[in-house]
Design brief:
- The chain has an eight-stranded parallel β-barrel with strand order 3-4-5-6-7-8-9-10, surrounded by six helices. Strands 1-2 form a two-stranded antiparallel sheet.
- It has 15 helices and ten strands.
- Helices cover 42% and strands 14% of the residues.
- The structure holds flavin mononucleotide (FMN).
- Flavin mononucleotide is lined by residues 15-19, 41-42, 71, 98, 140, 170, 202-205, 225-228, 359-360, 362, 367.
- Residues 15-19, 41-42, 71, 98, 140, 170, 202-205, 225-228, 359-360, 362, 367 line the site of flavin mononucleotide.
Length: 367
C-alpha cells in the first residue's frame, strides 16, 4: 500500500490508543507480523516542542519500531507546523493529526456554519504542516458530531485539497462515543468524497472477517485496529493471511497467549524499568486474560503486581487453578471457552454485539 511517498508492507494499521500504544506494545504486535504502520498515542504539539519529558517518552522508539507515525494534537498552526518538522527531523515515517472532537454544524444567523468556519481554519493549519515537511501528513477523524451532522466527507475533502496523504475515519459520531454500531455507509461516504487520497476505516474490528467486511462494504483502502489488538495482537497477521488466502487461522493457544503476554511484560520492564513497567502492566494483562477462559484468579492478582517475579508466581498459581476447566487434552471444556467476538456492524440488526469492547477511561472528546 502506498501512503504518499511511503511504501507500506500491508494495509493494516494500529490505531492510536492513549496509555497503551507505547513502544513495548508496538514491538509486541510487530513481532507477530502483518501490521503496515503503527501510530503513537496522541502527543501535544507544544509539549513536544518544549521537550517535555513525558511527551518525549510518548514518542520513544527503536530501530525495530518501523515504520512509525506520531500522532499530534494541537490547535496553534505554528506549533503544529514546527512539531511536524521536528518529527521529520527524528526520521519518523509519518505524522498523523488528531482532529479532536468534530464541530456541530450549527448555522448562525447571517453567517456560515460553525463547521465551515472551522473547516477553513483546520485546512489552513494542515496546509502549514504539509508545506513544512516531506513525510506524509495524515488526519484521523470521526464521522461527525451526530447522525444529523455527518461532516467527515466535507472535512476529508478539504484536507485532500491541502495535500494530506491519507484519512483515518472511525465510523462513529462524537455523540455515539464508543457505543452503538459502526456506520459502514458513513465510512463509504468519506471514501467517495475523495478523489485520490486513501481512506483507512476504523472501529470495532476484532476479527479478520470484520476487516474484510469493512474493506468490501466501504471501499476503504485499509483498516486500522485499536482495541481488537488488545484482545488479539495476532489480528494483523491473521487478517493479512485471511485477505490473501481466504483461510481463517485458528485462535492462538493459551501457551502462545502466555508467551506473547510475557514478552510484552519484558519489553515494558526494559523500556520503563521494573517497578513502573509492572505497574503499567496491571492494566494490560487483564486484556490478555479476556481470552483465557475463566480468569478471575489471574486478573484479581495481576492488577496488583510490582515485580517480574510476582508475575511469574501469579501465572504459576493460575495455571494450577485453570486446570479444573480443561479436558483430557488440556483444552478448555466447551462451556468455558470465551464467546466469539462479534463486531457491532456484524451483529444481527437490533442485537447488541455479544461482547461489548470495554473502553478504558480517558478524554473521549479528543479521540
Ligand atoms: C483507550 C483508548 C485510547 C485512545 N486514544 C486515542 C488517541 O490517542 N488518538 C486517537 O486518535 N484515537 C484514540 N482512540 C480511538 C481509537 O484510535 C479508535 O479510533 C477507536 O477505539 C475505535 O477503534 P477500535 O474499535 O478498533 O478500538 C482511543 C481509544 C481508546 C479505547
Amino acid at each position: 500500500m502506498r501512503f504518499g511517498p511511503l511504501n507500506l508492507s500491508s494495509n493494516l494499521f494500529l490505531s492510536p490508543l492513549a496509555g497503551y500504544t507505547n513502544l513495548p506494545f508496538r514491538l509486541s504486535v510487530r513481532e507477530l507480523g502483518g501490521m503496515g504502520l503503527a501510530t503513537t498515542d496522541l502527543v501535544n504539539a507544544r509539549s513536544l516542542l518544549e521537550k517535555n519529558s513525558k511527551a518525549l517518552k510518548l514518542i520513544e522508539t527503536s530501530p525495530a519500531d518501523r515504520p512509525l507515525a506520531i500522532q499530534l494534537f494541537g490547535s496553534v498552526p505554528e506549533e503544529m507546523r514546527d512539531a511536524a518538522a521536528y518529527i521529520e527531523s527524528l526520521g519518523i515515517a509519518s505524522v498523523d493529526i488528531n482532529m479532536g472532537c468534530p464541530v456541530r454544524k450549527v448555522c448562525r444567523v447571517g453567517g456560515g456554519s460553525a463547521m465551515m468556519t472551522e473547516l477553513d481554519k483546520t485546512a489552513a493549519l494542515v496546509k502549514g504542516m504539509v508545506n513544512a515537511v516531506k513525510i506524509p501528513v495524515t488526519a484521523k477523524m470521526r464521522l461527525g458530531w451526530d447522525e444529523q451532522n455527518l461532516t467527515a466527507p466535507d472535512l476529508a475533502r478539504a484536507l485532500e485539497d491541502v495535500g494530506v496523504s491519507a484519512i483515518f475515519v472511525h465510523g462513529r459520531t462524537r455523540e455515539q462515543g464508543f457505543g452503538g454500531r459502526v456506520n459502514l455507509v458513513g465510512i463509504g461516504a468519506v471514501v467517495r468524497a475523495l478523489r485520490t487520497v486513501p481512506v483507512i476505516g476504523n472501529g470495532d474490528i476484532t476479527t479478520p472477517a470484520a476487516a474484510k467486511r469493512m474493506l468490501d462494504e466501504t471501499g476503504c483502502a485499509g483498516v486500522s485496529i485499536g482495541r481488537g489488538a488488545f484482545y488479539n495482537p495476532w489480528i494483523f497477521h491473521h487478517t493479512l493471511h485471511y485477505l490473501k488466502t481466504g483461510e481463517a487461522l485458528p485462535e492462538p493457544s493459551f501457551e502462545e497467549r502466555v508467551r506473547v503476554m510475557r514478552r510484552h511484560l519484558d519489553l515494558m520492564v526494559q523500556v520503563f524499568g521494573e517497578a513502573h513497567g509492572c505497574r503499567m502492566f496491571r492494566k494490560v494483562a487483564p486484556w490478555y486474560a479476556k481470552r483465557f477462559g475463566p480468569a478471575n484468579e489471574f486478573t484479581k492478582r495481576v492488577v496488583l503486581i510490582s515485580s517480574r517475579a510476582e508475575f511469574e508466581e501469579i501465572l504459576e498459581h493460575y495455571r494450577g487453578w485453570r486446570a479444573q476447566f480443561l479436558d483430557e487434552n488440556g483444552e478448555l471444556k466447551p462451556r468455558f471457552r470465551p464467546a466469539p467476538l462479534v463486531p457491532s456492524f456484524m451483529a444481527a440488526a437490533g442485537e447488541p454485539s455479544r461482547e461489548h469492547i470495554p473502553v478504558p477511561k480517558g478524554p473521549v472528546e479528543v479521540w
